[in-house]
Specification:
single chain; 5 strands; globular; alpha+beta; 4 helices; 15% strand
Length: 100
């Protein structure tokens, strides 16, 4: 009976769009980013981003992903398709801070 219950729970998770090992990750983020909200707020150079962002920290964003990297991240400025943007603009567009 325990095996049947495990299968039922696993199927329920799959149908809900989650996985058994996601650690609640789906509940924290909705995975809906809106790159159009960044229009005019992405920059190819760090200096241009710093000049435009004012008090908002500059972050490195992969437009095809869902996360941004802060200046302390090893990936800041180092992914092949990334751009610089302001943290407040990235968050408003639905991106969130990477764990790495």
């Amino acid at each position: 009976m325990g095996r049947v219950a495990a299968v039922v729970i696993a199927l329920a998770l799959v149908m809900a769009g989650a996985s058994a090992d996601d650690g609640g990750h789906h509940a924290k983020h909705d995975y809906h980013v809106h790159p159009a909200k960044l229009s005019g707020r992405t920059f190819k150079s760090l200096d241009a981003a710093k000049a435009a962002c004012g008090k908002s920290p500059v972050v490195w964003l992969n437009p095809t992903g869902v996360v941004f990297h802060t200046s302390t991240s090893r990936w800041f400025g180092h992914t092949s398709t990334g751009v610089y943007t302001c943290r407040d603009a990235a968050e408003a567009a639905g991106y969130w801070k990477s764990k790495y």
